[in-house]
Please model this.
Amino acid sequence: MSTVGILGGGQLARMLALAGAPLGVRFLVVDNVPEACASQVAPQLTADWRDFAALAEFARRIDVATFDFENVPADTAQWLTEHTRVFPNPRALAVAQDRLAEKSLFRDIGLPTPDFAAVDSREDLIRAVERIGVPSILKTRRLGYDGKGQFRLKAPTDVDAAWDALAGAPSILEAFVPFERELSVIAVRSREGEFRTYPLTQNWHADGILSASLAPAPGCEVLAPVAFAHARRIAEELDYVGVFALELFVKDGGLMGNEMAPRVHNSGHWTIEGAPASQFENHVRAVLGLPLGDTSAIGVSVMLNWVGELPPATPVLAEPRAHWHDYGKSPRAGRKVGHATLCAGNAAQMCERLARVAQALGRGAQAAPVLETLGLPAAP
Model:
């Protein structure tokens, strides 16, 4: 029986452990927060990311290491490679940790991106705004996710406020993209180089945090093969092993690269019930060198994120093929505490089920763009 070690003990680690258990896989998570939510389903070692004595004990007890979030220090990831097998490799982690390196990789493999410029000083920011213009978004190069570490500049006079808001951290200025849709590719690559993708997912955000996902994304017959080809090139360039997400904007009918996540991803949660093998199961399979599972979609799936606190579960559980996920986390503003996935055989069935759930939970605004995309006008 193999043991997978996971750096990070959040909900992604929790769902990896739940997916791997039927395969006979054991898990050990390490996190610097005592009693992280994954510890409810797998044993936890509590340690700082640079407590190398504790990490040596962690490495001794596992067969392979992986991550539930990308901001593990690069030197920790590199150190681990000297003591156990690590997937994805530290280079992939390092690229995804740095928005400048990430955007540069996208351009190198032929994926268009918003215009961008490195910003290391206030003077750099002034020059970047003069070249790129406004509106634009200043983002920290590292440690930003779910809308954190960002400032939107609406006028050139916002330079000082933007610089102060990010406390002078090394940053990147990106042109604001008035996109038409947000899509993501959830992809997996095995140790042997086998590459598979799930159907494209369409996503909607609120306050920088994923609110809802729909899969398969409708009307993507032309875009899908292009998106999958970009994801394959990224995986091959990084010699990537495991699941990753490539987030994309659709603008003027074409694709632009937004960012990648070197891990299982929130926009792939629908795969737990909406695909024969979920992103979590396939990540476990990939890092252990097992054959990859089927990534096709079973009908239509919608994932609704619960942020801050959980709504009542009953209206969801009353629906056919509806699934509830409580992450075992205490309520807190801006915190992902759970999600629900609705599955249906077709768009018409999904509209009926989603509309009922949204009305019962008072979540009309969250469901409205999904219903509109599926062809049902939102309720007034």
User: Anything to note?
Assistant: Residues 276 and 294 are 6 Å apart (CA to CA).
